[in-house]
Amino acid sequence: MQENAFSINYQKQYIATPKSEIHFIQDKIDLKKLFFSQAQNCRRLFAIDTNVAALPCLKNFVALFGADGKQDQKAAAKIKPGVYDGSGAAKGNALIIVQAGEKHKTIKTVLQIVEAALDRSFTRKDVFCAIGGGVLTDMTAFAASLYKRGAVCEFVPTTLLAMVDAAMGGKTGCDFDDYKNMIGAFYPARALYVYPDFVQSLNEREYRSGFAEAFKTALLYNKKMFEEISKKRELVKKRDKAFVFKMIQACAKAKARVVQKDMIEKNIRMQLNLGHTFGHALETCAGLGKIAHGDAVAWGIGRALCLSQKLGLCPDEYKEKVFELLEYFGWETAAAPKCFCPKDGAKKILEAMRRDKKNSSSKIRVILQSGLCDTVITEVSDKDILKCL
Fold first, then answer.
1. CA distances from 47 to 97, 144, 307, 308 (A)
2. Which pTM was predicted?
3. Each residue of 12-39: pLDDT tens digit?
4. E strands of the chain, at which residues?
5. I need a surface site. Which of 186, 256, 287, 345 has the fewest CB within 10 A?
């Protein structure tokens, strides 16, 4: 197995999970080999969604639980949500398949995962393992944090967004009352197994969504990566394997450095929310799941830079350079896109921003920039935000 790894260490901040081991595996995707090639000292509850369950590369793995149905071109329609017990090499383990999509990122789904473990008498030493994107890793880790006051969790991220951002750093949770990630906990995974080859199976919407988080990381922390994205943009669009792998590693290491210093988002970790205060509000107003998370974040980055410029923080040249790239990669840069927002969209986005969990006063906290890798955490008035909407 071709692999390299590093750790995110939490010893001083999070005793329950002292560190996360991040494994980058460049071999062919083989989860049966990864989890069952040797004797196991624990049981695992694997959580996947209906889309992931239908991936051809997981056929042999899903078959261990009798959940594969008749694998053909219409396999996705034949794989049903439910809980399945393992056989053969997977005996003693279980698989829960949940409905795919942001609209199913609810406390009900989280509790379904908890119930599956409870029905099988899992202990706190057993493992909740999410195989999927950020929606699934968020919910599975939240379920693990609740189960008997804390079980172990592991991830196999299958989307670029999860690989570069969502699966790392311990943020967990679900949506509530049409607001993004309003219930949750900080609860990091013990291990992440990153197979870059999953990226090649993503549809264009999912790939672009994940790349938005990588682009955000470059703006925040990596001037070299930003310049490479700018100069080698065709490699990004082609999903060049070497370029994508290098990008995933750079993003993971950048996030690890931040999270080790500020696990529970008291100061510098807030920088990672560049574009998110605007973006989450847009997702809420459009209806959760209707806009890909990364597309909303990319739009939010544009709004954050517009606000930075209007407040005199960043020069026109920097804003224009970023906007040129946003538009090249197909992201929306209009102030309050009519195709996403209902009537009075600006006011509704502002109202959703007021409910952002990072706010600590009557003003809205936003992440702005003075330039590349020069980031400002500040509070602004409603009047200034409306100028950008």
1. 6, 11, 40, 41
2. 0.92
3. 777 778 899 999 999 999 999 999 988 8
4. 3-9, 19-25, 44-49, 82-85, 94-98, 127-132, 152-157, 174-176, 179-183, 191-194, 364-371, 374-380
5. 287
